[in-house]
């Protein structure tokens, strides 16, 4: 899908980094700010490549169509961890 939208096929390897490495960084607390930013960038690409047609649509229940993806992007898993850091119980504590 990345190459079909005019991006380099090399960019598709970033999906592997964001889907595998970033959650490991967040869960272990080792460089979790970097992991949070990787997840946020991955979700931004997901919105741009997959869900751009649904950004202004409502689902059958009346909620925002890409509500789950928006929750992943806007909640603590990405933005808050990236801005606030992992906390005092992390491995590297910065």
Task: Describe the protein in words.
With 94 residues, the protein is mostly helical. It has a domain at 37-85. The protein contains 4 helices and no strands. Helix 2 (32-49) runs antiparallel to helix 3 (67-74). The longest helix has 18 residues, at 32-49. 17% of the residues are buried. The mean pLDDT is 80.
Mean pLDDT: 80
Structural class category: mainly alpha
> Which spans of ≥5 residues are poorly predicted at pLDDT below 50?
none
Q: Distance N terminus to C terminus? A: 35 Å
Q: Strand portion, in percent? A: under 5%
Work out the helicity level: 40-55%
Q: List the secondary-structure elements in sequence, H or E.
A: HHHH
Main beta sheet: strand number and arrangement? none
Q: Which oligomerization state do the chains in this entry correspond to? A: single chain
Shape: flat
Number of helical runs? 4
Taking all Cα atoms into account, the compactness measure Rg is 15 Å
- How many runs of DSSP E, i.e. beta strands? 0
Layout of secondary structure:
Blueprint (H helix, E strand, L loop, with lengths): L12 H16 L3 H18 L17 H8 L1 H9 L10
Helix pairs in contact: 1-2, 2-3, 2-4
Please sum up the structure shown.
The chain is mostly helical and 94 residues long.
């Amino acid at each position: 899908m990345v190459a079909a939208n005019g991006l380099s096929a090399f960019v598709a390897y970033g999906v592997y980094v964001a889907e595998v490495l970033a959650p490991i960084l967040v869960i272990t607390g080792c460089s979790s700010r970097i992991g949070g930013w990787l997840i946020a960038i991955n979700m931004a690409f997901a919105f741009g490549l997959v869900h751009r047609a649904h950004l202004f649509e409502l689902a059958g229940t009346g909620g925002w169509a890409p509500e789950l993806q928006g929750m992943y992007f806007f909640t603590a898993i990405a933005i808050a961890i990236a801005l606030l850091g992992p906390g005092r119980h992390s491995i590297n504590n910065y």
